[in-house]
């Protein structure tokens, strides 16, 4: 097969991206934002969307003009050559040992909240989740898109149900006047909330699988981002109304707690299952994106099994490698009781650095308004790295090591 199957529609793309952005954050981040900024957090979400918008425009323009399964690595390679493309690709793949197992751990936590399962049972849930993701990955991107669109609808339905049962009306929303907003608390909230919009770089790997990538990929990216932002804002309103935040309260239990308060204890399992599915959707799109990146990088050696596609035009061999690695690290983390929270914080710096590399690339190879948006996005990414502080050194050290250790290649990978 010459390339990946082009079958994604605009609606499927919106479902994929919105669930990727909601992921593990939709149940926890609104409560964290409320704890940091109280009512000011209602302004933080539109401010965050405005800040992320130039970055999203940059990704949309890059995906429109240079669609490739290589995603961020392909964009950077177009601007700075094949070595930088490989460095960026491996930088993205370096998240696998921590990011995917951590998300699986959070997803399994919803089963513990609903049914009180032991750690051994939760490990089985994590491994079973990986097997389902592997099965979906062998069926083409369209299968994942249909399921994730359904998950996105379930999350939206849950928020609508909370607003309806909780009798939340627009006049009751405690939106403070702009002049009363505290800049310091707003910035503290933004530093946490940014992670809700980590996922744009993973979505870029699916650009080439749209039926009309030049038209539908940028539309799906922007619409999906706005849908996710609206859901996060709606969740924050509910958290503030029912005071489901504060010291000593688990942030991830905020929405399930509201559901129990409104619908009774028997409804807890409904909220937990939807929470699990949202996490599942995020892990799924990252797993499929990693597989496409491995396949794209393997094009340097076309005879490699990793460079081959199945009869369904999907990179099954690359998917097997990614899922196998994730399963291995999931088991290691379980046996060694590694501190996932600290490792994830360091991994977040890698995502920002990848965003920065893509925006700098966009500033170099794009033209017109897209070029200026990418330039603005690069400036914002520099600010985000500064917000991470000294912990961003982890990402910079990984980048420097990859730059020095990876062998040079003489040709740029052809677009896939």
UniProtKB/TrEMBL annotation:
<dbReference type="GO" id="GO:0005886">
    <property type="term" value="C:plasma membrane"/>
</dbReference>
<feature type="transmembrane region" description="Helical">
    <location>
        <begin position="87"/>
        <end position="111"/>
    </location>
</feature>
<feature type="transmembrane region" description="Helical">
    <location>
        <begin position="343"/>
        <end position="366"/>
    </location>
</feature>
<dbReference type="InterPro" id="IPR050367">
    <property type="entry name" value="APC_superfamily"/>
</dbReference>
<feature type="transmembrane region" description="Helical">
    <location>
        <begin position="378"/>
        <end position="406"/>
    </location>
</feature>
<dbReference type="InterPro" id="IPR002293">
    <property type="entry name" value="AA/rel_permease1"/>
</dbReference>
<keyword id="KW-0472">Membrane</keyword>
<keyword id="KW-0812">Transmembrane</keyword>
<feature type="transmembrane region" description="Helical">
    <location>
        <begin position="316"/>
        <end position="337"/>
    </location>
</feature>
<feature type="transmembrane region" description="Helical">
    <location>
        <begin position="267"/>
        <end position="295"/>
    </location>
</feature>
<feature type="transmembrane region" description="Helical">
    <location>
        <begin position="43"/>
        <end position="66"/>
    </location>
</feature>
<protein>
    <submittedName>
        <fullName>L-methionine/branched-chain amino acid transporter</fullName>
    </submittedName>
</protein>
<dbReference type="Pfam" id="PF13520">
    <property type="entry name" value="AA_permease_2"/>
</dbReference>
<keyword id="KW-1003">Cell membrane</keyword>
<feature type="transmembrane region" description="Helical">
    <location>
        <begin position="149"/>
        <end position="166"/>
    </location>
</feature>
<feature type="transmembrane region" description="Helical">
    <location>
        <begin position="117"/>
        <end position="137"/>
    </location>
</feature>
<feature type="transmembrane region" description="Helical">
    <location>
        <begin position="186"/>
        <end position="208"/>
    </location>
</feature>
<keyword id="KW-1133">Transmembrane helix</keyword>
<dbReference type="GO" id="GO:0022857">
    <property type="term" value="F:transmembrane transporter activity"/>
</dbReference>
<feature type="transmembrane region" description="Helical">
    <location>
        <begin position="220"/>
        <end position="240"/>
    </location>
</feature>
């Amino acid at each position: 097969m010459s390339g990946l199957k082009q079958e994604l529609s605009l609606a499927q793309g919106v479902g994929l991206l919105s669930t990727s952005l909601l992921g593990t954050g939709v149940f926890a981040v609104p409560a964290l934002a409320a704890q940091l900024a109280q009512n000011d957090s209602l302004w933080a979400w539109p401010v965050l969307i405005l800040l992320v918008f130039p970055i999203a425009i940059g990704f949309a323009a890059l995906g429109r003009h240079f669609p490739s399964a290589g995603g961020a690595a392909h964009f950077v390679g177009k601007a700075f050559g094949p070595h930088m493309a490989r460095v960026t690709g491996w930088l993205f793949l370096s998240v696998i040992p921590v990011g995917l197992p951590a998300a699986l751990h959070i997803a399994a936590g919803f089963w513990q909240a609903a049914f009180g399962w032991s750690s051994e049972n939760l490990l089985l849930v994590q491994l079973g989740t990986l097997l389902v993701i592997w099965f979906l990955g062998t069926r083409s991107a369209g299968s994942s898109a249909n399921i994730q669109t359904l998950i996105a609808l379930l999350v939206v339905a849950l928020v609508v149900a909370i607003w309806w049962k909780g009798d939340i009306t627009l006049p009751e929303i405690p939106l403070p006047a702009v002049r009363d907003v505290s800049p310091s608390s707003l910035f503290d909230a933004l530093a946490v909330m940014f992670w809700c919009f980590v996922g744009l770089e993973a979505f870029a790997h699916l650009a080439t699988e749209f039926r009309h990538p030049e038209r539908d990929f940028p539309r799906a990216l922007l619409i999906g981002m706005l849908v996710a932002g609206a859901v996060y804002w709606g969740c924050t309103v509910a958290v503030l109304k029912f005071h489901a935040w504060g010291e000593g309260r688990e942030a991830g239990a905020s929405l399930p707690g509201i559901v129990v308060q409104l619908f009774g204890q028997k409804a807890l399992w409904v909220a937990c299952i939807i929470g699990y599915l949202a996490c599942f959707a995020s892990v799924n799109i990252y797993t499929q994106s990693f597989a496409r990146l491995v396949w794209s990088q393997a094009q340097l050696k076309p005879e490699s099994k990793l460079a081959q596609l199945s009869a369904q035009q999907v990179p099954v061999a690359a998917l097997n490698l990614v899922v196998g690695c994730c399963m291995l690290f999931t088991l290691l983390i379980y046996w060694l009781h590694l501190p996932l929270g600290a490792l994830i914080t360091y991994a977040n710096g890698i995502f920002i650095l990848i965003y920065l590399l893509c925006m700098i690339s966009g500033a170099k190879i794009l033209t017109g308004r897209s070029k200026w948006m990418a330039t603005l996005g690069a400036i914002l990414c520099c600010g985000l790295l500064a917000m991470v502080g000294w912990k961003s050194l982890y990402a910079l050290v990984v980048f420097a090591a990859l730059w020095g250790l990876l062998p040079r290649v003489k040709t740029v990978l052809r677009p896939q």
